[in-house]
Amino acid sequence: MPYIFGNDRLEEILWRLLDDRDPLLRAYVYPIRDDRKDDAVYIGPPFHGLIAWLRNEHNGGQFHIIIRRGKCMELSGIISIGVPLAAQGHR
After folding, report:
1. Sign of the Cα pseudo-torsion (6, 25, 64, 40, in order)
2. Mean pLDDT on 35-55
3. What is the band of 91 on the pLDDT scale with cuts at 50, 70, 90?
4. 3-state SS of the chain?
5. What sign has the CA pseudo-torsion 73, 75, 78, 79?
6. Which of 65, 69, 76, 82 shows the greatest Cβ crowding within 10 Å of its Cβ?
7. CB 50 within 8 Å of CB 18
8. pTM for this structure?
9. Is the pLDDT at 6 greater than 80, yes or no?
10. Do residues 43 and 28 make contact, with C-beta atoms less than 8 angstroms apart?
């Protein structure tokens, strides 16, 4: 499974989809822990603040993100998000 950040083409697709307001778009986000995909933490329309929301509300980490337009897969890959600064100070 490809890493999205660090791949210019996939990263461009991700940001474009996060700004796309097509009602057929659905994002599915699954945290990855111990090399296993956990239950989805988000299923719904993609939105521009999704990355910040995952960082702030789920303390960052690795996530498998899938974005579909109806039955068509638009993007699937892993995103790695740093831990929020506030959480880093509590270590």
Report:
1. positive
2. 96
3. very low
4. CCECCCCHHHHHHHHHHHHCCCCCEEEEEEEEECCEECCCCEEECCCCCHHHHHHHHHCCEEEEEEEEECCEEEEEEEEEECCCHHHHCCC
5. negative
6. 65
7. yes
8. 0.89
9. yes
10. yes
For residue 85, give the amino acid letter. L
Question: Residue 20 and residue 3: Cα distance in Å, rounded?
Answer: 21
Q: Which residue is associated with the tokens 């303390």?
A: 59
Residue 42's identity, in one-letter code, is Y
SS3 60: coil
- Three-state SS for 33? strand
pLDDT score recorded for residue 88: 56
pLDDT (mean) for 67-80: 98
With CA atoms as reference, report the closest residue to 51 among 81, 87, 16: 81
